[in-house]
Automatic annotation (TrEMBL):
Function: Involved in the recovery of exogenous heme iron. Extracts iron from heme while preserving the protoporphyrin ring intact.
Signal in keyword set: yes
GO BP annotations, alphabetical order: iron import into cell
Residues of the Dyp-type peroxidase C-terminal domain: 268-457
Cofactor note: Binds 1 heme b (iron(II)-protoporphyrin IX) group non-covalently per subunit.
Top-level taxonomic group: Bacteria
NCBIfam families per record: Dyp_perox_fam (TIGR01413), tat_substr_1 (TIGR01412)
Biased composition regions of type Low complexity, renumbered to the chain: 13-27
Catalytic activity reported: heme b + 2 H(+) = protoporphyrin IX + Fe(2+)
Residue stretches of biased makeup (Basic and acidic residues): 1-11
Residue span(s) of domain Dyp-type peroxidase N-terminal: 90-256
Gene Ontology cellular component annotations, sorted alphabetically: cell envelope; cytosol
Protein name: Deferrochelatase
């Protein structure tokens, strides 16, 4: 290759700056969990600074053939369209639910605890960068040593951060391995069995389960949410790439169209049955309810026979791929549909009367003394009154994965919920729904995962490189670090 005439030998800023310079003019509506908003001008200035630094580093690398980090730029915290990566809790839980999801469960392939820790460190740095609109590595997709693969795959180079959040979790098999078909115990590959949190149980079989192993479980989970599907896919792709040699993808799920609101400022979206979904969800503004139903309290570890203090301030993520029998539903009368849900299809109001956010009155009866909200309706059976006061933070997505051999859509709801303990906040409710909810006739659960979600990486703790952006080190903090202490 002729070096002097090759355009790559003129390391101009642009892509090397990462995606920060491409952020939108105004901050997106993102009222919580954000660092100070920056104007585009400020960000462009910052991006230019980073670009100059990276370009300088690039020149050095090209001359010497050694990958040198970029130099001199102001620190990056967050900008328009971004949510802070660090904090007490991981982002992507109470963060206003974005429109798109790409979730991946991984099997850890290395048996080395040190390599697992190194992977989590790499993932932490990359996630901190991507969520701030930067490239996965310091050079970006079109810069860096010419004879090495770029440190970012590039498909999100020209789009804004789109509110990307990346949330990590640990499956039961990471702690105790996978039991054999004969019920023999799995292998504790990483010396973590003594840290298994009590809520990370094997979920029981529920009546509507038709689970596919290839869509279930996993040692690790990464949930990427954004308002642009390409940004979410880019995140998982680059994290998966960084996992090479240590973990492989077991299953993934793409979701379009959120089926919940996690902030009172958000419009209630609709699921594929055409009903408003997320009306009675736990919202970010309900801090007492979050403490009661979503975050693992300090006292939880005392109930465990293991040492699970590392999960304090974290949560559990329940993931269920629920196929919906769309074609059958579409031939069902409006009366039947509303009776099965327990709410009106138009406004989402309870059948006992009022508007969308009116509390349901389950005692109210109509003609013949029958309850206006049927006894086998979904909202009655999922309501806290029927579930020992339990609530959950739902954060699911619609999915459509082609069709089956009979021409029926393989579509449904990828149910995601964050709870403080699945033993009290998921299993009893799912058991009740599976056996009594009229809606179940239209549902089939085809995938399942349960993950412990550690608390966030503390603010201000991540090491920064010479260019002021999160940089990889051998000893920096990482998501779930307390688990390995
Ligand atoms: C085990 C938990 C739940 C599963 C699984 C689940 C599946 C599921 N839900 C709908 C549609 C709606 N759900 C609604 C409310 C609602 N659902 C759950 C739990 C599960 N849903 C709860 C806890 C609630 C809130 C109950 C309350 O406090 O009133 C609603 C009504 C609107 C709303 O409040 O969100 C709809 C509609 C589908 C289609 C589905 C599986 C595919
Ligand atoms: Fe529901």
């Amino acid at each position: 290759m002729s070096a002097p005439t090759d355009p790559h030998d003129d390391p101009t800023p642009g892509l090397a700056a990462g995606r920060a310079a491409d952020a939108p003019d105004v901050a997106t509506s993102a009222p919580t969990g954000r660092g100070p908003a920056m104007s585009r001008r400020a960000l462009l200035g910052l991006g230019g600074g980073i670009a100059a630094g990276v370009a300088a580093g690039f020149g050095l690398a090209r001359a010497t053939g050694v990958a040198e980090p970029a130099t001199a730029a102001a620190p990056v915290s967050s900008g328009p369209g971004t949510y802070a990566f660090t904090g007490t809790h991981q982002a992507g839980i109470v963060t206003p639910a974005q429109d798109r999801l790409y979730l991946a469960a991984f099997d850890v392939t290395t048996t080395s605890r040190d390599e697992l820790v190194a992977l989590l460190r790499r993932w932490t740095t990359i996630a901190a960068r991507l969520t701030q609109g930067l490239s996965a590595g310091p050079y970006g997709p079109a810069s860096g040593p010419y004879d090495a693969p770029p440190d970012d795959t590039g498909e999100a180079a020209d789009v804004p951060p789109a509110g990307l959040t990346i949330t990590f979790g640990f499956g039961r098999s990471l702690f105790v391995g996978t039991p054999g078909p004969d019920g023999s115990p799995g292998t504790d590959r990483f010396g973590l069995a003594g840290k298994l949190p009590g809520g990370l149980v094997e979920l029981p079989h529920f009546a509507v389960d038709n689970l596919e192993p290839a869509r279930s479980d996993g040692d690790l989970v990464v949930q990427a949410c954004a308002d642009d599907p390409q940004v979410a896919v880019h995140a998982i792709r680059n994290l998966s790439r960084a996992a090479f040699g240590a973990a492989t993808i077991r299953w993934t799920q793409l979701g379009y169209g959120r089926t919940s609101s996690t902030s009172t400022s958000q419009r209630t979206p609709r699921n594929l049955f055409g009903f408003k979904d997320g009306t009675a969800n736990v919202k970010a503004e309900e801090t007492d309810a979050l403490d009661e139903h979503v975050w693992v309290p300090a006292g939880a570890a005392a109930q465990d026979t293991t040492d699970s203090t590392w999960l304090t301030g974290g949560s559990y993520l329940v993931a269920r791929r629920i196929r919906m029998r769309i074609e059958t539903w579409d031939r069902t009368s409006l009366r039947e549909q509303e009776g099965l849900v327990g709410r009106t299809k138009g406004e989402g109001a309870p059948l006992s009367g009022g508007q969308e956010h009116t509390e349901p009155d389950f005692a109210r009866t109509g003609r013949g003394g029958a309850p206006l909200i049927p006894v086998d309706s979904h909202v009655r059976l999922a309501h806290p009154d029927q579930n020992a006061g339990v609530r959950m933070l739902r954060r699911g997505y619609n999915f459509t994965d082609g069709n089956d051999s009979l021409g029926r859509l393989d579509a449904g709801l990828f149910f995601l919920a964050f709870v403080r303990d699945p033993r009290t906040h998921y299993i009893p409710m799912q058991t009740q729904l599976s056996s009594q909810d009229g809606l179940m006739e239209y549902l089939e659960h085809t995938g399942s995962g349960l993950f412990a979600v550690p608390p966030g990486v503390p603010d201000g703790s991540l090491p920064l490189g010479a260019d002021g952006t999160p940089a990889a080190t051998d000893d920096g903090p990482f998501v779930g670090e307390a688990l390995f202490a």
